[in-house]
């Protein structure tokens, strides 16, 4: 691997946008345990390891770019969520964050349930043996086919998202001679403090049925009249990458308020509430996420308190974390191809992937960390922008980061916290071949999603 020195370039530029790192970390070789998965270390030779395996050897065997998923960390996070919420609640892992058959098996073994939001996710879950009654189907526009398949399979829950869907699911269930357990997803009118595209509980957006104006109460009225439906509860998901628990508290309070109205109008106490997912993770050392036990305590307290005030029995609670389970468990490994210093600006470090394996920086202005992992370096910190190889100037992986000034072609860089919404949102832009996902545990690495090949691309091209 080349270690040729590179001119240092600007250091603490005046070019840093407000709110971004003010200064480089004291030691660029240090790996902050908040952003790296639990078994990641830098060994005595300066090389980073995961699950005891050296990234140089992993790159050799599996190529780059590739996602490396720390299985022990994934399982530990599943257990932490499950233990925090206890036997009186259910944890549904949100499969949209990342789903594969191995992941489904781990979830099933760790006692988690699974939230899917498409026919493809449902097929993956069922094919890997997740019991149907532990699956919830989501989506704001589920097709008749998807609903039929879910009802036939016997999924434990369908989350209804519109007035049309209430009738659609009821008809399908009746036709199949079944009574489908459903929840109604409501929008509680909370402005979650997150990027506009990933906030989902303010009223002006496509998900759910508004509490405001009595729409959600009307949805309950209609659902209760239909023989094909067993309405078990109310669902709310306020958005994603949220740190502040205040939004969840307001959401819980408003959902319990609806349960109270339902009791007063219909004389029934709906037995479940689901407060969705959306808990934030650390992408950089500036992020300070809550632990599952703190989240469980906060949500449990508020639901118990509100129910007591309303004289309701406490319903069974469920939550749907995706990012908070899988996000911190993986990093993406890249090889540096070119290093371009723009005098007085910054240094562009190009890697062999980009927006096709991580669209989040371009889409949400997401911030990530990055480290030189194939060796340690005592070179000075250099203000860098890690970019991909796509034909877009917005093809940025890490907008502002400090890397050692001697970073050079052939070096390996790793971007941590890419377990969620990176492989699952990956694309074939520029006919990129989507990278593999390699699970690492106890000194063994195995491919759980293989790298795409040119044959895969050409197989679809039937013209
Ligand atoms: C209904 C629902 N549940 C759960 C999630 C999972 O969110 P996160 O991965 O942020 O925990 C999402 C995505 O935002 C969602 O839309
Ligand atoms: N995909 C988004 C979050 C949306 C999750 C689905 N409702 C992200 O990467 O942050």
TrEMBL record:
Species classification: Bacteria, Bacillati, Actinomycetota, Actinomycetes, Kitasatosporales
Name of the protein in question: Diaminopimelate decarboxylase
Gene Ontology molecular function: diaminopimelate decarboxylase activity; pyridoxal phosphate binding
Species the sequence originates in: Streptomyces kasugaensis
Membership in a protein family: Belongs to the Orn/Lys/Arg decarboxylase class-II family. LysA subfamily.
Keyword Lyase: yes
Subunit structure: Homodimer.
Pathway(s) served: Amino-acid biosynthesis; L-lysine biosynthesis via DAP pathway; L-lysine from DL-2,6-diaminopimelate: step 1/1
Catalytic reaction annotation: meso-2,6-diaminopimelate + H(+) = L-lysine + CO2
Domain annotation Orn/DAP/Arg decarboxylase 2 N-terminal: ranges: 72-326
Keyword terms: Amino-acid biosynthesis, Decarboxylase, Lyase, Lysine biosynthesis, Pyridoxal phosphate
Residue list for modification N6-(pyridoxal phosphate)lysine: 96
Binding annotation for substrate: 323, 360, 364, 392, 421
BP term (GO), one: lysine biosynthetic process via diaminopimelate
EC number: 4.1.1.20
Gene from which the chain derives: lysA
């Amino acid at each position: 691997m080349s270690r040729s020195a590179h001119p240092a370039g600007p250091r603490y530029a005046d070019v840093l946008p407000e709110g971004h790192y003010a200064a480089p970390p004291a030691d660029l070789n240090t790996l902050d345990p908040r952003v790296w998965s639990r078994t990641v270390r830098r060994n005595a030779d300066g090389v980073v390891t995961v699950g005891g395996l050296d990234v140089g050897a992993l790159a050799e065997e599996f190529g780059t770019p590739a996602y490396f998923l720390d299985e022990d960390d994934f399982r530990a996070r599943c257990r932490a969520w499950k233990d925090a919420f206890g036997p009186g609640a259910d944890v549904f892992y949100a499969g949209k964050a990342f789903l594969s058959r191995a992941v489904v098996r781990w979830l099933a073994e760790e006692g988690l349930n699974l939230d899917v939001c498409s026919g493809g996710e449902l097929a993956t879950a069922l094919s890997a043996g997740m019991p149907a009654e532990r699956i919830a189907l989501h989506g704001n526009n589920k097709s008749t086919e998807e609903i039929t398949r879910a009802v036939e399979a016997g999924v434990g829950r369908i989350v209804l998202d519109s007035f049309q869907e209430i009738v659609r699911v009821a008809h399908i269930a009746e036709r199949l001679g079944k009574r489908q357990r459903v929840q109604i997803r409501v929008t509680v009118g909370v402005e979650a403090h997150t990027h506009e595209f990933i906030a989902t509980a303010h009223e002006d957006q496509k998900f759910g049925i508004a509490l405001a104006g009595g729409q959600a109460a009307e949805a309950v009225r209609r659902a209760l009249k239909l023989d094909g439906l067993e309405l078990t509860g109310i669902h709310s998901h306020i958005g994603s990458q949220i740190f502040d628990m205040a939004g969840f508290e307001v959401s819980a309070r408003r959902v319990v308020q609806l349960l109270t109205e339902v009791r007063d109008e219909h004389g029934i106490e709906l037995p479940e509430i689901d407060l969705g997912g959306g808990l934030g993770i650390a992408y950089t050392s500036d992020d300070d996420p809550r632990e599952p036990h703190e989240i469980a305590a906060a949500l449990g307290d508020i639901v118990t308190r509100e129910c007591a005030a309303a004289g309701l029995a406490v319903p069974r609670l469920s939550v749907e974390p995706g990012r908070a389970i899988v996000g911190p468990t993986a990093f993406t490994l890249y090889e540096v191809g070119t290093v371009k210093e723009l005098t007085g600006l910054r240094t562009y470090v190009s890697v062999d992937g980009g927006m096709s394996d991580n669209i989040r920086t371009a889409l949400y202005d997401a911030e990530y960390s990055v480290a030189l992992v194939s060796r340690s370096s005592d070179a000075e910190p250099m203000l860098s922008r890690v970019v991909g190889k796509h034909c877009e100037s917005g093809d940025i992986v890490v907008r502002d980061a400090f890397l050692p000034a001697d970073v050079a072609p052939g070096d390996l860089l790793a971007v941590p916290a890419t377990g969620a919404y990176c492989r699952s949102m990956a694309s074939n832009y520029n006919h990129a071949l989507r990278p593999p996902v390699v699970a690492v545990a106890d000194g063994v690495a195995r491919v759980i999603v293989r790298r795409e090949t040119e044959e895969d691309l050409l197989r679809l091209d039937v013209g």
